[in-house]
Amino acid sequence: MNRTAIVAICGCLVLSLLGAAAAPAQTVDGRIHSWGTQVVGPDHSQGIVDISAGLWHTLALRDDGTVVGWGWNSYGQCIVPGLNADFVQVEAGANHSVALKSDGTVVVWGGELYGENTTPSPNQDFIAIATHSNHNLALKSDGSIVAWGNNTSGQCDVPLPNTDFVAIAAGHGHSLGIKSDGSIVAWGAGDEVGEAYEQCVVPTNPPNDNYVAVAAGGGQSVGLKADGSVVMWGYDVLGMGQIPAPNSGFVAIGCGWLHNVLLRDDGTVVALGAGQPGDPYGMPFYGQCNIPAPNADFVDVTAGPYTCVGLKSDGSMVAWGLNEDGECDVPAPNADFATVSGGSGHTLGLRSDGSIAAWGLNNRDQCEFDPNATNFVAVSAGNYHSLALTSDGVILALGAGQDTSGFPNLGQCLVPHPNADFVAVEAGSVHSLGLKSDGSVVAFGDLEYGQTTVPSPNANFAAISAGGWHNLGLKTDGTVVAWGAGGPGMSGSPHYEQSVVPVIAGEVVAIAAGWYHSLALKLDGSIVSWGRNEFGQCDIPAPNADFIAIAAGTGHSLGLKSDGSIVAWGDNQYGQCTVPEPNTDWVAIDTASNFSLGLKGPGSLPGDLNLDGVVDADDFLLFAGCLTGPEISPQAGCDLADLEVDDDVDLADYAVFMTLVQ
Questions:
Q1: What distances in angstroms separate CA 559 from CA 69, 214, 508, 563, one per listed residue?
Q2: What is the DSSP letter of 629?
Q3: Rounded to an integer, what is the distance from CA 392 to the centroid of its chain?
Q4: In angstroms, how far is CA 643 from the centroid of its own chain?
């Protein structure tokens, strides 16, 4: 739901997020991007050199010094601020992120409750970072530790003398540091016998020496000795401290809330504590100790509160444990998508070969598409159901609504007979729409607010859009019809006059129904809006011109410009209106709940001068021919070589290009 239909402008068809019954358009990039509360994961297959798992999000450092974040993004913790380059380490906290630059500075972003995003001055000479929950540690080149953020348990009060530290680790309410002599210093919660879980009472048997690594969890601490043995102390439940024999050959360690993860020198991972195979799913068991096969070739591991992430020797990454409903896991490869549609907790992606990838919440089997079927031409995701249109005009409906037994089963998947001759589909909250080739609309599902009662005459429709509890229909003469919640004379939630179409001067070419508001795109490229405007979702930013596609969400709106940029307005509480840079080369948009989706098209990969989808030696040869100095050469591709966008191609652009070439 909440997307626009095929847009006809100046005789050209522009593919938006719910196309009519035509073959999906081919794109060069075809990669799905999202922003807001959910950020889709990157390509995990190569180039990862450092990893860190937070409470609801994950960070990865690529070999080119850039950071990628994905998962829950309600506080912007997945979006790196400023120049995303020259990073050497990443650490994910509860709702914030920390990264270390090669120049020794620390960058912090995301949620802030205890000042954890305010880096102490001077921000320089740092060589390592650590974070957990809401406090941060940073190790200086002189061996001192700087700590800031939540200090309710004294976890930021570094004991004196604050010197000679060589490694650090941050737990939920405690901190650990290794001295140059191999001993561990611990401070914060549990620093006395009988207090808390005694996670700061470092054991003396074995002796407190020869440690080379430390890890801190919810109430436990783990140390790795130079001989490859592991020592664990503090909170010990669910077998967290039952280190398997032989206790040797370990090379890396990590701690979650109620689990520990250990890496052996043979590349296998040992996971102890909650979330073992066979454990019932639910708090605190999320499969965090159920290591995916093959358990081999790991070179590093890290643990979040309820997750684990492992780095393989080939630079690929494996993650397991809590992922809510997998909303951020775009099935690999994240490429060749032609259209995408977001529902309340799941997402559908239509590939250029006509197959469907579905991920996220699957509690009603709304994601159970046949991965081998390649005859689909359109998709639409509702609250708990999915619609897909086949090339022969048949609607496939999956998820809730296979009957009318009561919410959420209100018949939204019971396609009326005959199921044939459809050219477009739209999934609303708990209702569905289908557009027939004869211009009539079929509506089924929830009828509480009249959203399944198509106004007469039911003819000459060219496009449809389903919102939360209302619908929009575009007629062949360019006029708009609306029905359902928010109609004339209706008051109180969910009625916000979203179905009271204003007088629109000029021809409308596209429509988008949001949760409580509506958008219409005119032939002249301007947008008209009406309905609820609590968050400014109806206040189109100036200049209101050159738009070619529209999408309406719960409290925000998106518009795609003819130059390939996206304009977003309305509720931005979760960053759903903060379009990722570079804001160029977008070919399709959609909105879902409190996040936004976009598809990239040709030229979307910086440095890809020949538009073949990869930055390689061929692009280097083209770049060399463009390296002319103060002006941009008129030869093909040189406009893309101006990577700094300063109207020349010079050594500064060369420096950027060399970070992109593969």
A1: 25, 49, 15, 12
A2: B
A3: 34
A4: 25
Closest CA to 65 of 80, 78, 76, 55: 80
Q: Cα separation of 166 and 211, whole Å?
A: 10
pLDDT tens, residue by residue, 608-633: 777 666 677 777 888 888 876 555 55
For helices 651-660 and 617-626, the axis angle rounded to 10 degrees is 170
Is 160 buried (19+), middle (13-18) or exposed (0-12) by CB count in 10 A?
Answer: exposed
- Helix or strand or coil: residue 136? strand
Of 110, 183, 166, 175, nearest to 148 (Cα)? 175
Helices (runs of H) and strands (runs of E) counted in the chain: 3, 45
pLDDT digits 0-9 by tens, 499-558:
999 999 989 999 999 999 999 999 999 999 999 999 999 999 999 999 999 999 999 999
According to CATH, the topology of domain 42-148 is Methylamine Dehydrogenase; Chain H (2.130.10)
CATH architecture entry for 7-33+330-600: 7 Propeller (2.130)
Q: Domain extents for the chain?
A: 7-33+330-600, 42-148, 617-660
Contacts with 282 (C-beta within 8 Å, 6 or more apart), sequence order: none
Closest listed residue to residue 342, CA positions, set 77, 27, 23, 599: 599
Q: Cα separation of 601 and 197, whole Å? A: 54
Nearby residues of 602 by Cβ (< 8 Å), 6 or more positions away: 27, 28, 29, 585, 611
> Residue 100 and residue 95: Cα distance in Å, rounded?
17
- CA gap 122, 119 in Å, rounded: 8
